[in-house]
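Table 4 source record.
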Amino acid sequence: MKPTMIILAAFLSITTMAQSQQRMKRQQQTTMSIEERAAINSKKLTLALDLNESQQAKVQELLTTHLTIQKAQREEREGKTSEELAADAAERKEARLDAKISLQNNMKEILTPEQFERYQEMQLERDSRNKGRKRRQ
């Protein structure tokens, strides 16, 4: 009985710690400005894709624009009731996909074919990781 209780206590403490770390990370992301998030994301892409300075500047500008649009959509959503959100769910999804297509087309113009191929692989990996996560309520 004692070993079971010890294992259960260890499991609960690890789970609690992991959840608090995720909460802190999410909170830090929301407190960063759009420009800071775009700079960090463009630097991550620079490291992953070996971007030159010109490409990095263009990517940062593109990400700033994309994040600004996302923020506006999020703020628009916050002011609506659940009935209104349900009514225009298809419209929001279409707008989100249009923005994603636009971002992808712009990235294709900025990156070399090899870099773009690696970028698409990274996006697929991220999407598959995010698919398993529950949506925030």
